[in-house]
């Protein structure tokens, strides 16, 4: 009986110690992984691609892995690195930046037909697929149109939109420019991206009233967009605000310029983003 008792006691001790050692080993591995993760790089700077709505979208992601997400959208026929100065400014401020090549543009394969609604749906799918929550979205020119169209189609998707040089219908250009530009409708062959600008977007000021997020509507003093149009967009968005930048045109404050990035950072501070 004594031998049985000793055997059972030793068996218990062996199992207990074995389980204890297993627990300690597991704990040590977990702690090691935790420290490895904490001491690893949290900064990202990569060029990636993703399939959304049946098209490939190339994008750059740069910034603090734990930073607030900011999506950047370029202008008609452009590419994500048109906004490289802004990307670096936002990165330095601790944000996580996603600079997209819109469908059929930049590094993406060209298409025969383009629509702002399709591009807006691409951005919406991008946000949902990457689980970005409610990001801030900046759009320049066509990118601004896309940001506004996104909020019309899916109100409340963004925490804030910042649209520079945007128009909600083609006639929002300055009168002289529209009179000249609209003559292209008479031509037999017009590039697909140009054709889109001739007939789109087709949003209304009433639809602007349905946009619930913060909105900064920007234009240069000498922009291609009529100043009254810019002001009306901002006035119809409940949390809208217009900003006209002195001395700038449609893109001089954005392309290879730090001006728009500084405006963004000041606005983010104002809206606690």
In brief:
This protein is α/β, with parallel strands linked by helices and 273 residues long. It has 2 domains: 40 residues; 228 residues, Alpha/Beta hydrolase fold, catalytic domain (Rossmann fold). 42% of the residues lie in helices and 19% in strands.
Structural class: alpha/beta
Mean pLDDT: 89
Radius of gyration: 26 Å
Strand order of the largest sheet: 1-2-4-3-5-6-7-8
CATH-level-4 superfamily name of the largest domain:
Alpha/Beta hydrolase fold, catalytic domain
User: Tell me about the biggest sheet?
Assistant: 8 strands, mixed
How are helices and strands ordered from N to C?
Answer: HEEEHEHEHEHHHEHEH
Report low-confidence residues grouped into runs of 5 or more.
1-39
- As a percent range, the share of strand residues is 15-25%
Let me know the number of strands. Answer: 8
Which CATH top level class of the largest domain fits?
A: Alpha Beta
| CATH architectural grouping of the largest domain | 3-Layer(aba) Sandwich
CA-based shape: globular
Number of domains: 2
Helix content class: 40-55%
Structural notes for this entry:
42% of the residues lie in helices and 19% in strands. The protein has 273 residues and is an alpha/beta fold. It has nine helices and eight strands. The protein folds into two domains: 1-40; 43-270, Alpha/Beta hydrolase fold, catalytic domain (Rossmann fold), CATH 3.40.50.1820. The longest helix has 38 residues, at 2-39. Mean pLDDT is 89; it is low at 1-39. It has helices at 2-39, 84-92, 116-129, 142-153, 175-181, 192-199, 205-208, 227-236, 259-270, and strands at 43-52, 55-64, 69-73, 96-100, 136-140, 160-164, 214-220, 240-245. It has an eight-stranded mixed beta sheet with strand order 1-2-4-3-5-6-7-8. α2 crosses α9 and α3 crosses α4.
């Amino acid at each position: 009986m004594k031998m049985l008792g000793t055997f059972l006691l030793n068996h218990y001790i062996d199992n207990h110690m074995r389980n204890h050692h297993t627990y300690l080993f597991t704990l040590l591995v977990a702690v090691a992984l935790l420290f490895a993760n904490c001491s690893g790089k949290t900064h990202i700077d990569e060029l990636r691609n993703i399939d959304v709505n049946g098209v490939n979208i190339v994008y750059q992601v740069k910034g603090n892995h734990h930073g607030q997400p900011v999506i950047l959208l370029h202008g008609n026929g452009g590419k994500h690195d048109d906004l490289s100065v802004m990307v670096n400014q936002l990165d330095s401020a601790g944000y996580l930046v996603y600079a997209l090549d819109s469908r059929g543009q930049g590094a993406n394969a060209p298409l025969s037909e383009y629509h702002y609604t399709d591009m807006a749906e691409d951005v919406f799918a991008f946000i949902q697929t990457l689980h970005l929550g409610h990001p801030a979205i900046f759009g320049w020119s066509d990118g601004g149109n896309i940001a506004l169209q996104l909020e019309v189609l899916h109100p409340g998707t963004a925490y804030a939109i910042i649209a520079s040089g945007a128009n909600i219908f083609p006639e929002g250009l300055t009168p002289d420019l529209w009179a000249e530009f609209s003559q292209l409708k008479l031509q037999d062959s017009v590039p697909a991206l140009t054709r889109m600008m001739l007939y789109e977007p087709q949003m209304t000021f009433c639809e602007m009233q349905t946009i619930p997020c913060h909105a900064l509507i920007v234009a240069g003093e000498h922009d291609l967009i009529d100043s009254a149009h810019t002001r009306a967009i901002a006035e119809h968005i409940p949390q809208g605000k217009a900003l006209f930048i002195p001395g700038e045109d449609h893109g001089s404050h954005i392309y290879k310029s730090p001006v728009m990035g500084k405006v963004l950072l000041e606005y983010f501070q104002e809206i606690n983003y």
